[in-house]
Write a sequence for this structure.
């Protein structure tokens, strides 16, 4: 049996996903139309992950998530700018991003850095004309869009278990 809280949670996640996708696709489309749908997808992924992590936690943790996302985006762009895409390079970049998060005392947020590395590197490899720094900036912006939509949703609609 599905509880009313289950329906509320599902509706909140669905609306956050919709808003994140539309905003992420629009912003990315303005700067790089070829990766607009990917931008929407990354905004949704970021939004859902952040929304789940905000349940029962304080909103200030969002800043730590944003810093970790920035770390991952920059590490991915730096690697691609010097060596180009490879699966081994992806693994090395994830390793470096996670180590950087530990150095900055962000170990719980290291998964965001790892996800950012993966998205930056794979999307950039799919669009060879897209400069790695441009791609990293777009992916970071998309993650921030998803994060902002989640924070807004939690502040406006305090669903079951929201922090």
């Amino acid at each position: 049996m599905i509880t009313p809280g289950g329906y509320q949670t599902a509706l909140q996640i669905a609306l956050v996903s919709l808003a994140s996708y539309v905003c992420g696709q629009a912003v990315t489309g303005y700067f790089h139309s070829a990766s607009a749908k990917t931008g929407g997808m990354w905004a949704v992924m970021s939004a859902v992950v952040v929304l789940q992590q905000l349940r029962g936690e304080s909103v200030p943790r969002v800043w730590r998530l944003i810093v970790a996302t920035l770390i991952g985006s920059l590490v991915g762009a730096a690697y691609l700018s010097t060596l180009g895409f490879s699966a081994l390079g992806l693994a090395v970049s994830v390793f470096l991003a996670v180590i950087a998060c530990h150095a900055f005392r962000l170990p719980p947020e290291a998964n965001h850095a790892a996800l950012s590395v993966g998205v930056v590197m794979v999307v950039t490899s799919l669009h060879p004309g897209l400069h790695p720094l441009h791609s990293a900036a777009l992916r970071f912006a998309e993650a921030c869009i998803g994060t902002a939509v989640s924070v807004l949703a939690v502040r406006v609609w305090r669903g079951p278990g929201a922090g």
